[in-house]
Design brief:
The structure is a single chain. The protein is mostly helical. About 65% of the residues lie in helices and about 5% in strands. The chain is elongated and about 60 Å long. The model has no long low-confidence stretch (mean pLDDT about 95).
Length: about 140
């Protein structure tokens, strides 16, 4: 039997009877149930893509980088878990770490130099670092 993850069901219906039925079914599956309009669901979907799909893509790119550089990607899994746990337990903006949030331009330049052999990652690194610098608390 497969396990349904604890992801909330977002319910929208065109009448109260259908909404009640959908809410009842979703509640029986054990997940949280939230009423959300089409516009709200679309905004939540965008947020879900940002936190899930894009994050996973960064993991995949990093795994490729590790493979090319002879680094064991498994070494990063505890950090991935810790970062995810902190994002769940606290506000991600309060948990930001790294050279960009510290304005450590010496380390940023060292990293960018290493990534010169990986132009796609270098561009992502630079873009995300600049975003962190521009959105400091």
């Amino acid at each position: 039997m497969s396990v349904i993850p604890e992801i909330p069901f977002l319910i929208d219906a065109n009448n109260e009877q259908t909404e009640t039925l959908a809410m009842t079914i979703a509640e029986k599956l054990g997940s949280s149930v939230v009423k959300a309009s089409d516009a709200e669901r679309l905004k939540i979907h965008v947020a879900a893509v940002l936190v899930n799909n894009f994050t996973n893509h960064l993991f995949a790119l990093t795994e490729g980088y590790c493979n090319k550089e002879g680094i064991d990607f498994q070494l990063l899994k505890p950090l991935i878990a810790e970062t995810s746990n902190r994002a769940i337990q606290s506000s991600p903006s309060l948990e930001q770490t790294g050279p960009a949030i510290r304005n450590d331009h010496v380390t940023l330049e060292k990293h960018l130099k290493i990534l010169s052999l990986h132009p796609e990652l270098r561009e992502l690194y630079l873009t995300l670092s600049n975003s962190i610098i521009n959105h400091q608390r």
